[in-house]
Amino acid sequence: MTETTTALLVLAAQKGDASAFSALCEGHYQGSYRFAFKLCQCEQDAADLTQEVWSKVAKDIRVLLEPSAFKAWLFRAVYRRFIDLTRRRQKELLVAEPPQQQCGDTAKVERHLDLLALIAQLPDVERHSVYLFYLEELPIADIAKVLDTPPGTIKSRLHSARQKLSQWAQDERGSEHESRAAN
């Protein structure tokens, strides 16, 4: 969904057009769920979090002053709700289990999973920035709004994450080469 289409739908939804809000939901629900899942690493928590955020969006869409910023506003709401959930769990001393991952048979799927595993090893702030930039394709200015961080810090986190991922990938290739040579 284009930014212009989103902005027009937001304007209509702000005036009470239920079909416009439904179209917004259809266009952005999956992206918000994917982001919630990347944060939570648990399907049920991500589904609950996404549902709560969309309930809040339905109530608060009238207060959004800049309709073209809807996607950043939505992702920021997901991120803030995740932070609230994390804080509540820390208070309750609950620990979430890591998600189960299934591996495919092809080399391409294995490389993809290896990359995702490397990304998962990044510190939270870098992992969230990488996810929003590369997978959700948000511009740096929007990521800064979502994470409530200056754009320069986002650029720095992305640069640091790229360096780490590159080094880790090289280290893995080197260890694979050494194990093949030993066999």
- The coarse overall form would be globular
Q: Name the beta content range.
A: under 5%
How do the helices and strands follow one another from N- to C-terminus?
A: HHHHHHHH
Compute the CA-based radius of gyration. Answer: 19 Å
Put simply, the count of helices is 8
Summarize the entry for a quick read:
The protein is mostly helical.
Structure description:
Helix 1 packs across helix 2, helix 2 runs antiparallel to helix 3 and helix 7 (140-147) packs across helix 8 (151-182). The relative contact order is 0.10. It is built from eight helices and no strands. The protein folds into two domains: 1-98, Rna Polymerase Sigma Factor, Chain: A (Orthogonal Bundle); 101-183, Winged helix-like DNA-binding domain superfamily/Winged helix DNA-binding domain (Arc Repressor Mutant, subunit A). It has helices at residues 3-14, 18-40, 43-60, 70-92, 107-120, 124-135, 140-147, 151-182. The protein is globular. Residues 93-106 have low confidence and may be disordered. The protein has 183 residues and is mainly alpha-helical.
